[in-house]
Amino acid sequence: MTPRPAVVETIAAVRSAVRDARRTGARVGFVPTMGALHEGHVALVRECRRHADFVVVSIFVNPSQFGPHEDFERYPRTLEDDVRRCHDGGAALVFAPPVSEIYPTGKIATYVEVPGLSDVLEGASRPGHFRGVATVVMKLLQIVQPDLACFGEKDYQQLQVIRRAVADLDVPVAIHAVPTVREPDGLAMSSRNRYLAGDDRRAATILHKALQAAVQTVASGERSADRVRQVLRETIESQQSAVIDYAEVADPVTLAPVRQVDAAHPAIALLAVRVGPARLIDNRLLPE
Description:
CATH topology of the largest domain: Rossmann fold
Number of helices: 10
Structural class: alpha/beta
Strand order of the largest sheet: 1-4-3-2-5-6
Distance between the termini: 39 Å
């Protein structure tokens, strides 16, 4: 039986455990999370375990990526359940630091920013969000120094920001993208799904339905990205309780809006929609 992962709170303890693992010849994998883990996170850990002998999972609700009116204080914190899920995925170590361990002086003077990728879509809706994300991920990569790190495709823009930051800064880590894990009704698994209940939970499936409609539109021969955007918006607007933040069709690498979608010009449909108390995101490559 796989032992329960050790839980540590300090940078020194993580580095010591990783050094010990490397002495045995282990390949080290890393999954950064904010906790409130679900089966999508377990899939990340399992994928990481497929490619690494010693998997570290960080659980850190990072204050620097939340805006002043966002849900930092009420973001779910479920450490005991999270450790169990890390065990299910095959993790060896859980790094669950207090804020003071990551930001010992309260604030830092050095930040990582990726202009272009960071200031559109989520970045436009949540100013400063990706500066906080990129900075803390680079800090965590420096702390753990893994051979590979796994990120979910549900947070597609985040994935692209991290890929670019790692490439630009010559960070010696392989970034593995893991497909989105969905509920049986198509809703992408997210820690913020915990905010949904009753009618709001049922209404949240409109994101998946809109993306399916976009996929079908392209599969039927439509090549106009504007028409695909229209299909996305019309589908979401059919659900009265859903409020669109953005519904975009963009280049999969640069995230710039595109005019055409076909096999020679692949794109990605990206959504951010508010349903009740939750702000949900999802995406789908076009054509599939």
